[in-house]
UniProtKB/TrEMBL annotation:
One Pfam family hit: HTH_31
Top-rank taxon: Bacteria
Stored SUPFAM superfamilies: lambda repressor-like DNA-binding domains (SSF47413)
Protein name (record): Helix-turn-helix domain-containing protein
Domain HTH cro/C1-type residue range list: 40-87
InterPro entries linked: Cro/C1-type_HTH, Lambda_DNA-bd_dom_sf, MLTR_LBD
PANTHER family named in the record: BLL4672 PROTEIN, BLL4672 PROTEIN-RELATED
SMART domains assigned: HTH_XRE (SM00530)
Length: 276
């Protein structure tokens, strides 16, 4: 597993895995060049597509200290046919996107905290880029867990999903929930390589949770800000919620998460939870 503290090593692995997943047939390579024992494109083929030397690709994939320019990153992203989220991740790993130098928020800005409260009766919470829960309303606490009873260091949605003995059992498709969360967490890590708390979380999760370690190693970078979750609560049974993740324009490292019951039965179950 790549060290979570070394973007250069991650850049090398990311480029190699994206090269190896490509199908040579999609590039119209001559048949004589397609006889190969390893999957994907060869390094020399990626070099040709990106307009760089083979030695340059070799040095990048061996993490030998290169920092590609924005133009080279763009050429590599095009050659490897990266999706938009993967392209952004590559730019972050190469440190070629403007960085937010502000320290990660540990408290909710007052207007956003008030908005979370005003969203009742819809369950809502505000998180920073590393999934720390900064504000929540009573409905979200009723649906998941009373965040106020937790130590501040454990008010983290990823930790709750992985480590909390009750919350980790709430999700009917826990692997999908963890997979989608990891995609966001990996993008956040690439954008904030200086965040030691985030790096510490990732180290903790990879060493203590087998599912997280397996999915982190797959390097999925598909971000999902809208979807549906099925929750199992022993008190009221199964309920389904639709979720929306919004990014405040003035606080773009924060995430406003809003849940809505997907059907009348789920709304009834949510109402019973809140009444408790």
């Amino acid at each position: 597993m790549t060290s979570t503290a070394d973007p250069t090593q991650e850049l090398a692995v990311f480029l190699r895995t994206r090269r190896e997943r490509l199908d040579p047939d999609d590039f119209g390579l001559p048949a004589r060049r397609r006889s190969r024992r390893t999957p994907g494109l060869r390094r020399e083929e990626v070099a040709e597509l990106a307009g760089v030397s083979i030695d340059y690709i070799v040095r990048l994939e061996q993490a030998r200290g290169l920092r590609p320019s924005a133009n080279v990153v763009e050429a590599l992203a095009t050659a490897l046919r990266l999706a938009p989220d993967e392209r952004a991740y590559l730019f972050d790993l190469a440190q070629q996107r403007p960085r937010n130098t502000d320290k990660p928020a540990t408290t909710a800005p007052e207007p956003l905290a008030r908005l979370v409260t005003d969203l009742s009766p819809l369950p809502a919470m505000l998180m920073n880029h590393r999934y720390d829960i900064l504000a929540w309303n009573p409905e979200m606490a009723s649906l998941l867990v009373d965040f106020g009873t937790l130590p501040p260091s454990r008010r983290n949605q990823m930790w709750l999903c992985l480590m909390h003995p009750e919350v980790r059992e709430f999700y009917a498709d826990r692997e999908l929930v963890v997979r989608e969360a990891i995609a966001h967490l990996r993008a956040a890590w690439a954008a904030h390589p200086e965040d030691r708390v985030l790096a510490g979380f990732i180290t903790e999760f990879t060493t203590q949770d087998e599912l997280f370690a397996r999915l982190w190693a797959e390097r999925d970078i598909v971000l999902n800000g809208r979807g549906r979750k099925v929750l199992r609560r022993p008190e009221v049974g199964t309920l389904t919620v639709d979720f929306e993740v919004l990014m405040p324009l003035q606080d773009q490292d924060q995430r406003l998460v809003i849940y809505r019951a997907a059907d009348e039965e789920s709304q009834s179950a949510l109402d019973r939870l809140c009444a408790r």
